[in-house]
């Protein structure tokens, strides 16, 4: 059983931390290495559990993985890719959603792929229908079996015209990782264009792929016969940077996030500034700080890039509990990413959730039974409570709430945060937080 994480709130977070590569790029760039004939080297790899999981999955497929955790360098040699034993794949069932992205590369390398039951955060239904449709468009045959999904490509993989009904990040990556070595040209419309996807495209281009992104979210991929290795420095983790920014605001502190970059965070920075948060941007990173005056309520909605990332929503909601007035948050990416607010109410927040689309445009969850809008009245003094981490970002948000609360909080399931926040305990210590585990 995992330990309980106790936080004595009320300390101002003050100091500097560093963010390294983005979880949501690093894991995909590691999968891309499978496509090459030569070894690849990825730098700025964070020490998080998702990297370990993807590394293990590469190893069971015969990729030689060498990782230096401290320097953040990972070297992957795919020259001896082989079929994995079902039991070895199954050992990773439920641990992450990344295995679904192994399909294209494995089909190219081995002619078949076995995908275990997927995991990832429970923040909605999180189906894989787009992924399977994409694979079928390339000519793959999908067979759902008891041990997972068995995928083959009896006639090879061929370029396709694909339109996504929603610009899904994962489905876009599925197309990229499959199309680069499929025969012929693939045209993907309504693609996701997140900075992590741009970075994955950069990785694939280094390997020899031909990919062009047009202004209207169309991506054209011209398939090539072989790909080589790559050397790449991962884009910094803008979700982690935004999470620490919110922690600075809630604890009335000041945190310099070394490595944070302005451009991929532009929408977050606008939102943070509208709330009243202070920002100093430099080449080395961004300092986020509480202004010393009351924070302002705002209305926001999450969206695909260049909109406000859904992954920033949960930390921002905690910050808005401290803003003066009524804030509205409309979550349009996931149907069920506001459940974490009930524990914040137990801590003294005043947050009501609604099924209606509030404060912005109507979204695809509008007339369905999902509580996907929140109205937050603030400022409210938070007090310590006993809470359980529901998912990665929700968990970090509880940590932020506990840091800003009066008294002691007991947080269960803190290990989930290790999936995506590198050495957060060390960072908390560096910033002056008071916590202990038993
Ligand atoms: N969706 C479907 N069918 C599919 C795939 C997605 O209906 O086959 C729906 C999802 O249920 C969701 C929406 O489409 O409502 C968008 O999902 P998307 O595919 O874009 O998300 P993802 O690729 O599964 C990645 C990140 C998430 C991040 C989202 C959105 C990774 C490993 N995960 O997920 O990150 O929230 O994009 O930006 O890259 C996190 O880091 O905590 C996290 C959840």
UniProtKB/TrEMBL annotation:
Q: Which gene encodes it?
A: murA
Give the UniProt family note. Belongs to the EPSP synthase family. MurA subfamily.
Q: In Gene Ontology terms, what is a biological process of this protein?
A: regulation of cell shape
**The protein's name in its UniProt record:** UDP-N-acetylglucosamine 1-carboxyvinyltransferase
Q: What class of enzyme is it?
A: transferase
What catalytic activity is recorded?
Answer: phosphoenolpyruvate + UDP-N-acetyl-alpha-D-glucosamine = UDP-N-acetyl-3-O-(1-carboxyvinyl)-alpha-D-glucosamine + phosphate
Main function: Cell wall formation. Adds enolpyruvyl to UDP-N-acetylglucosamine.
Does the entry feature the keyword Cell division, yes or no? yes
Subcellular localization = Cytoplasm
Active site residues per record: 121 (proton donor)
Q: Which GO terms describe its molecular function?
A: UDP-N-acetylglucosamine 1-carboxyvinyltransferase activity
Identify the metabolic or biological route this protein is part of.
Cell wall biogenesis; peptidoglycan biosynthesis
Q: Which GO terms describe its cellular component?
A: cytoplasm
Q: SUPFAM superfamilies this protein is in?
A: EPT/RTPC-like
Q: Which residues form the Enolpyruvate transferase domain?
A: 7-428
Write down the PANTHER family for this protein, in alphabetical order: UDP-N-ACETYLGLUCOSAMINE 1-CARBOXYVINYLTRANSFERASE
Q: Which residues bind phosphoenolpyruvate?
A: 23-24
Q: Which domain of life is it from?
A: Bacteria
- Residue positions where 2-(S-cysteinyl)pyruvic acid O-phosphothioketal is found in the record: 121
The residues that hold UDP-N-acetyl-alpha-D-glucosamine are 97, 311, 333
UniProt keyword list? Cell cycle, Cell division, Cell shape, Cell wall biogenesis/degradation, Cytoplasm, Peptidoglycan synthesis, Pyruvate, Transferase
Identify the InterPro entries for this entry: Enolpyruvate_Tfrase_dom (IPR001986), Enolpyruvate_Tfrase_sf (IPR036968), MurA_subfamily (IPR050068), RNA3'P_cycl/enolpyr_Trfase_a/b (IPR013792), UDP_GlcNAc_COvinyl_MurA (IPR005750)
* The keyword Transferase is assigned to this record: yes
> Which is one Pfam family of this protein?
EPSP_synthase
Its Enzyme Commission number(s) read 2.5.1.7
């Amino acid at each position: 059983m995992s330990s309980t994480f106790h936080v004595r709130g009320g300390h101002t977070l003050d100091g500097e931390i560093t963010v390294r590569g983005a979880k949501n790029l690093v894991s995909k760039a590691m999968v891309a290495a499978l496509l090459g004939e030569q070894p690849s080297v990825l730098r700025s790899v964070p020490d998080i559990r998702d990297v370990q999981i993807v590394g293990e999955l590469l190893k069971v497929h015969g990729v030689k993985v060498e990782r230096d955790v401290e320097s953040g360098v990972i070297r992957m040699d795919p020259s001896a890719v082989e079929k994995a034993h079902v039991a070895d794949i199954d050992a990773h069932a439920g641990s992450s959603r990344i295995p679904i992205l192994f399909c294209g590369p494995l089909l190219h390398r081995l002619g078949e792929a076995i995908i275990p039951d997927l995991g990832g955060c429970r923040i909605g239904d999180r189906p894989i229908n787009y992924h399977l449709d994409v694979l079928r468009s390339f000519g793959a045959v999908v067979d759902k079996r008891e041990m997972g999904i068995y995928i083959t490509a009896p006639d090879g993989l061929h370029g396709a015209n694909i339109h996504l009904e929603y610009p899904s990040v994962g489905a876009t990556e599925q197309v990229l990782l499959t199309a680069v070595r499929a025969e012929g040209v693939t045209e993907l419309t309504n693609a996701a264009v997140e900075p992590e996807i741009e970075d994955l495209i950069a990785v694939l281009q280094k390997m020899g792929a031909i990919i062009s992104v047009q202004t209207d979210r169309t991506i054209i991929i011209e398939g090539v016969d072989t790909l080589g290795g790559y050397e790449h420095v991962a884009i910094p983790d803008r979700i982690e940077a935004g999470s620490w920014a919110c922690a600075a605001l809630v604890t009335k502190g000041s945190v310099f996030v070394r490595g944070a970059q302005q451009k991929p965070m532009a929408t977050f920075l606008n939102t943070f500034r509208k709330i009243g948060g202070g920002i100093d941007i430099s080449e080395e990173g961004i300092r986020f700080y509480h202004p010393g005056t009351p924070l302002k309520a705002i209305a926001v909605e999450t969206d695909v890039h260049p909109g406000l990332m859904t992954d920033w929503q949960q930390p921002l909601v905690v910050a808005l509990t401290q803003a003066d007035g009524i804030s509205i948050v409309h979550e349009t990416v996931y149907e069920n990413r506001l459940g974490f607010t009930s524990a914040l109410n137990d801590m003294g927040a005043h947050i009501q959730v609604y099924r209606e689309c509030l404060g912005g445009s109507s979204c695809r969850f509008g007339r369905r039974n999902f509580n996907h809008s929140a109205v937050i009245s603030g400022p409210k003094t938070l007090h310590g409570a006993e809470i359980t981490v529901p998912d990665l970002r929700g968990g970090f948000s509880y940590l932020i709430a506990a840091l800003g609360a009066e008294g002691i909080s007991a947080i269960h399931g803190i290990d989930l945060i290790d999936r995506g926040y590198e050495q957060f305990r060390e960072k908390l210590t560096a910033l002056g937080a008071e916590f202990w585990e038993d």
